[in-house]
Design a protein that fits this description.
Layout: E1 5-9, H1 20-29, E2 34-37, H2 46-56, E3 59-70, E4 73-80, H3 87-102, H4 104-113, H5 120-127, H6 135-145, H7 151-159, E5 172-173, H8 174-183, E6 187-190, H9 204-212, E7 217-221, H10 227-240, E8 243-246, H11 267-279
Parallel strand pairs: 1-2, 2-3, 3-5, 6-7, 7-8
Antiparallel strand pairs: 3-4, 4-6
Helix pairs in contact: 1-2, 5-6, 6-7, 9-10
């Protein structure tokens, strides 16, 4: 039977709800053989996940999901196999995490104006020990207060891009992020490239330009993409020489429609990723 590979999942080290260990066990229960742990702007969950994976025989490919910007639009970039101690990359991830904290008060001010008061302590309670504060933690605090039913409602009504409580924050220019990932011996893949608001920016020409700048893959099979988008992205990837991946973008109970293994990566694509990381001395799966 073919390996089942889900290359984009999150733990509670960022905005997922499962600990890295619980995530690994849940992946095995879902029939997966490999996961790519890609928490937002941090590597902090990788060691725990890899240790849990070794205990039960599930491979963990280390990753990170960076917040980047391309033509003034947010683009999420997955970096696989990076050296987690690479100083330039670590410095940029620290800057990204700091920007998340800096905009918290602006979120709280806007929510208060909308009659939905929260305190920093409310958000801290939902954040737990995560070093990467995100909108999902604010959403969880809103759920705890009874303002909304779940994260999806919080984003749809208040926190999503362009919604009444949304606040902009710093994101790494994508060309700089591509260079940082490659400098850390990693491999860069754009996450959900045709998700809401991105399709008109990440065109075929744009993907070809980014491929020349160091992009090596695109996430094709994702719940944000319908069948037509997947077909077109597959063709674009083939024309631009990009590896095509698939994943759940699992967040535990934080995303209601993204169960582990709902989308998977072909074993041949996964092997190509692993081979390239090994050839440049990056960190492979364990």
């Amino acid at each position: 039977m073919a390996m089942r590979i889900d290359l984009h999942v999150h733990s509670n080290v960022s905005d997922g709800t499962d600990s890295p260990t619980r995530l690994v066990f849940a992946a095995q229960e879902a029939g997966l053989d490999v996961i790519g742990l890609c928490d937002h702007d941090t590597f902090d969950g990788i060691t725990e996940a890899r240790e849990a994976g070794r205990r039960i025989g599930l491979s963990v490919l280390p990753g990170v999901e960076m917040s980047t910007r391309y033509k003034d639009r947010p683009v999420h970039l997955l970096g696989y196999g990076c050296d987690p101690w690479n100083r330039p990359l670590l410095a940029e991830l620290t800057k990204l995490r700091a920007s998340r904290v800096e905009r918290l008060q602006a979120f709280l001010d806007k929510l208060a104006e909308l009659g939905l008061p929260l305190t920093e302590e409310d958000v801290a309670a939902s954040r737990g020990l995560s070093p990467s504060l995100g909108r999902p933690h604010i959403a969880d605090a809103m759920v705890a207060k009874g303002y909304v039913a779940n994260r999806d409602e919080a984003f749809a009504m208040y926190l999503g891009d362009g919604k009444p409580a949304y606040v902009e924050r710093y994101a790494t220019p994508i060309l700089e992020a591509l260079a940082l990932i490659r400098g850390a011996k990693g491999l860069a893949v754009i996450a959900h490239p045709w998700g809401p608001g991105a399709k008109d920016v990440l065109t075929g020409d744009a993907l070809a330009e980014l491929a020349k700048a160091g992009l090596e893959g695109i996430e094709v099979d994702h719940t944000d993409h319908d069948a037509r988008s997947r077909e077109m992205l597959t063709q674009l990837g083939a024309r631009t020489g990009l590896i095509r991946t698939g994943s759940s973008d699992y967040h535990g109970t934080g995303k209601l429609h993204n169960p582990l293994g709902i989308n998977v990566t072909r074993p041949t694509a996964y092997q190509e990723i692993v081979n390239r990381i090994a050839a440049r001395g990056g960190v492979g799966p364990s």
